[in-house]
Design goal:
The protein is α+β, with helices and mostly antiparallel strands and 347 residues long. It has four domains: 61 residues, no CATH class; 113 residues, Endonuclease/exonuclease/phosphatase (Deoxyribonuclease I, Chain A), CATH 3.60.10; 114 residues, no CATH class; 35 residues, no CATH class. The protein contains nine helices and 15 strands. Strand 3 and strand 4 form a beta hairpin. It is extended.
Amino acid sequence: METKLGKDEIKKVQQEIGWSYGIVVPSTARGGGLAILWKSDLAVTLRVQNKWYIDVLIDSRRSDIPWVCIGDFNEVLSVTEKEGGVGRACRQIENFRECLKDTGLRDLRYTGSWFTWAGERRGYGCIWERIDRALGTIEWRNKFLQARLFHIANLASDHCVLLLRLDQCARQADKRVKLFHFEAMWLKHEQCEEVVKEAWETGLQSGRVNPIESCLEGCRIALTKWYSQVFGHVGKKLKQVQRKLQTLETHAIGLANKDQISETRRELNKLYAMEEDMWFQRARSNWAKSGDKNTRYFHEKASSRKKKNTILGLMDESNQWQEDLELIKGIAINYYKKLFSSANTII
């Protein structure tokens, strides 16, 4: 990103954010300038430094570190991201796409205008482009599920201001009512069928006019209780069994605990199959088959669905953007009241 700052000004920024290490290419006549800053717990080796880019090697000893890159990439991802002027070469766009694919970076969702840069060019008139964006790896997007990028109009520059908020929907998440969902992975447990049968029989004997409703309600209550007290959280169980297996294999002496290790491995495989079913169901990837071992893919699809189904805000009747949960509820209720009401009907 072009800093337009000198070394002394970058040092002030470092002091404010508490990142004491960095490499700076100072600006020239208030133009250009680059900087890469980091905390003291990173090992960073400089490879190449010039006025166009800074190339460094980061030794993290981990391949799953969450990454997010935000700023002016000076490139578009499709022809629809530019209007006016000379069209972008298809090969140029494809190279940018390949770069993101190789690094595992994906575009983050945003709120605001489609284009992030606008400028006048002699002979071409006004040109609009979407060249500023935020990109994140799967690890980063799964860690910050509620993250949202905002494109904010800016009179001081021809670029939009990019504001990345990490806690967009965390404000009142605890107030949401959690709906009941039957989990496909429960079918792999030997007690599931018996729990359903017992609840269904109880419902049939309830004496209600509509026994099916009673049966379904009884199954919901019984399965919820069974999940909480018996089945348990698959993710937590996986970690526990993984640690158990690690301990057994670390302290293995001859054939003394061979049977215990084999039993633990079978238990771990069963839990992996349950986890795969869980994420497969949440991803709703109907074209895939259970057993494909695509848990990482299913997790990403499920996380994407959760983001897509989240309402961050709504425009009220005065064309004002509202993010307060109670105001959002009121806007939605009023909209559908008007939609389904007539002159003689009040909902």
